[in-house]
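Entry 14. Structure prediction run on the chain below.
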Amino acid sequence: MRIQEPNRTGMINAYSKTGQTPVGKERKVSMGKDEVNISAEALEMLKQVEDPDSPARREKIQRLKKQVEEGTYRVPSDKIADKILSFWRKL
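Output returned:
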């Protein structure tokens, strides 16, 4: 193997020049506009969410926090299983 081949530097220079623009010419890049799309499912979920500052929601949160702290908060395993199954059926 020869380390200093005569054509080796020529090939390196050829590759390094490909990304450069010619002198005096500017390349114009067109920029697209940003766009946000909210799915119908997300809008439906937004409608179902209660107002976070409503008194009923605050009371419910306080009740759940108290149950968790006391160790009395329990979720039925059949409800967990139903939610897991419904999730996997959607996929």
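The helical segments are 8-17, 40-48, 55-70, 77-90.
Filed with the rest of this week's runs.
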